[in-house]
Amino acid sequence: MPPPAPTSAPHATRKCFIAFVLALLSAGCIAPMAAIITATPNFVNPLAGRVDMSETTQKVLGVHEQFFVDVGPPEARLSVSVIEPHPELTLNVVSQPKGTVIVLHGVRASSFWMLGTAHSIAEAGYRTVLVDLRGHGRSSGEWLTYGPQEAADVSQVIDALYSRGLVAGELGVYGISYGATAAVHLAGRDRRVNAVVAVAPFDSMRDEVPHYSRIFSLGLGALIPETTYQAAIDRAGIVGGFDPDAAAASDAVRGAAASILILHGQEDWLVPPGNGAAIHAASPERNELALLPGLGHVSIWFDPSGEVSARAIEWFDRHLSQPEQ
Q: Shortest CA distance to 118 belongs to which of 172, 76, 192?
């Protein structure tokens, strides 16, 4: 009998090691993966939603009013900041807003990172309302739900805006990434929303969570089987009290009465443009899709050319009517 090839033993050992690692990953990481998937940034921060913004800070940031709104169930306290319409390069408030636009941030970010966008929209004549989504920024809340609960929360914020007399004209929503998906879900459940600009939204968490994890896990995510990701998503739904299969924006958009503009960068490898295309295809008669060449997930957010802001303002000008004088 000829001796085995010199590489056969190392090859077999390598295969056994990989199989062992995969077995460990599959058997033991579902619970911690679920926690990572659904825990908010403020999960371990009991002070979130308890500290008011000082008047000095408001003035520096160009915020005209800040308050909290209690939402739920499950209960949480959301931070809300209002920027009145003002001319470019000044904070002098104009007399009458053209409409009201809610601005929603991305996952593990906060409304602070959307101040530039909010001021651009305010300079176009709109009252803008920045919301820290549950468990982000200065808002409390333990669990992410990838759209449905966030939409329910913002709908309650809209209730509070009306009760405070802060909705002028018709209502629009601008969201980026996670906030864009939440905006689509909001439009699907709340007929008070007339127009949405969704920038780089993801469609389904069942597709995006594994994709996102593989990118940011430094190669380890590629070793985790798809079945393990899906089991972790199922567990995340149990922990967070939501149905992962109800978190698809392409389903939510079918119930929307609002006019929705979807903007997606053609070079977006974090949330690939197929997500925006899938949402558009689910209800093409009520929304438009624009794929922007040369833009990725980060560059479409920072909007160096101003194209995203210009398209958003044009959309709101077209679909949010002037308030009665």
A: 172
| Both tokens assigned to 231 | 């089991």
Residue 241's identity, in one-letter code, is G
pLDDT in tens, 243-302: 999 999 999 999 999 999 999 999 999 999 999 999 999 999 989 999 999 999 999 999
What's the pTM?
0.89
CA 131 to chain centroid: 11
Residue type present at position 16: C
173 close to 157: Cβ distance less than 8 angstroms:
no
The 3-state secondary structure of the chain, one letter per residue = CCCCCCCHHHHHHHHHHHHHHHHHHHHHCHHHHHHHHHECCCCCCCCCCCCCCCHHHHHHHCCCEEEEEEECCCCEEEEEEEECCCCCCCCCCCCCCCCEEEEECCCCCCHHHHHHHHHHHHHCCCEEEEECCCCCCCCCCCECCCCHHHHHHHHHHHHHHHHCCCCCCCEEEEEECHHHHHHHHHHHHCCCEEEEEEECCCCCHHHHHHHHHHHHCCCHHHHCCHHHHHHHHHHHHHHHCCCHHHCCHHHHHHHCCCEEEEEEECCCCCCCCHHHHHHHHHCCCCEEEEEECCCCHHHHHHCCCCHHHHHHHHHHHHHCCCCCC
For residue 260, give the amino acid letter.
Answer: I
List Cβ neighbours of 191 (8 Å cut-off, separation of 6 or more): 257
Tokens standing for residue 235: 């567990």
Cβ pair 80, 160 in contact under 8 A: yes
Return the structure tokens found at 294. 């040369």
Q: Is the confidence at residue 103, as pLDDT, over 80?
A: yes
| Rounded CA separation 269/113 (Å) | 21
pLDDT tens for residues 135-163? 999 999 999 999 999 999 999 999 999 99
Topology of the domain comprising 39-204+247-319: Rossmann fold (3.40.50)
